[in-house]
Amino acid sequence: MTQHELVRRLGVSRGTLHRVLTDSPLVKEATREKVLSELKKLNYTPNALARALKTRKTQTIGILGPSEIKAANINKLNEIYVAARAKGYRIELGYSDGSPEADEACIRELKARMVDGIIALGRGMVDNIPQYQSIIESGTPFISLYPIPGLNADCVYVDTQKAFMELVLHLTHNGHREMGILLDSSVSQYTKNRELGFRAGIEQAGLTLCESFIVRARSTEENAERSDYQLGYELAERAFKMNPRPTALVCFSDELAIGVLRAAEQNGVSVPSQIAIVGYDDFEGAKFARVPLTTMHQPNEVLAQEAVDLMIRRIEQSGPKTSVSIAIPASIVVRESCGCITK
């Protein structure tokens, strides 16, 4: 919401709003109470708004995040909050289920809160490019935490594609030749990059990919109520029934991999002696799994710092800007589930 839109909604002039915020005696008490009441409903604080009216900045960064907050995203949010706070900025959260309609509504809500810029934390739905493009065209700084083909925008991201390639190469260096990957049902760039990295690793190792070893969850609607743990369990049961079956499984996420470990235990499949399991994220539970999980560590502190620093530069600098893309490498954390180390 612009300052013009705000005063229109309040039904007062910009001068009257300024006088209310500065406790001027020239404002009628009824008007003052009405304005302050409406500002409270809009979640504005008088001191912050007075500063914003003067500087045209609120020192607030909006986060466009997924409605289903998973362990990896919680960590990202925490690190963004810490990085922003250290620079004197606040965070406003907006949640979306990832659909274009929900993203559009979330963007409107964040703009109504007069954020200075927006960071997209979600899953990279290509269908949502028009919504993101509208942010850029409005002049509001926008940063995506994942690459979106076809969108000319600032991007700070962990190189997931390279990470999954490195997971495959790690497994091949330890003797595996028949590997599978377990994927969610999303058509997001997050999921595509994982599969692309997996395929690249197979190719670089000079192996032939068995397409049936790419195990995908069924439709998004069908899995809407399932957690990644449950999804991993069900995908693993499908993989375990294959004949021949993969000797190693690369999992979409650590949460999904934890479900795979549980399925292995329930089905009498020994990890890692009969099948190796690796994940992605290095969330806190990975090291405490029944079989400690080999995974790729996402450097979320570095990601958040780079994103916040870039956002503040965009907010504070005027004039035309050339979009930048900053790729941050993940690093492998070797534990027992891949069979490379023993207890």
Automatic annotation (TrEMBL):
Domain HTH lacI-type residues, every copy: 1-55
Keywords, in A-Z order: DNA-binding, Transcription, Transcription regulation
SMART domains: HTH_LACI
Domain of life of the native organism: Bacteria
Matches recorded under Gene3D superfamilies: 3.40.50.2300, lambda repressor-like DNA-binding domains (1.10.260.40)
Single Gene Ontology MF annotation: transcription cis-regulatory region binding
PROSITE patterns: HTH_LACI_2
CDD domains assigned: HTH_LacI, PBP1_LacI_sugar_binding-like
Protein name: LacI family transcriptional regulator
PANTHER family associated with the record: HTH-TYPE TRANSCRIPTIONAL REGULATOR GALS (PTHR30146:SF109), LACI-RELATED TRANSCRIPTIONAL REPRESSOR (PTHR30146)
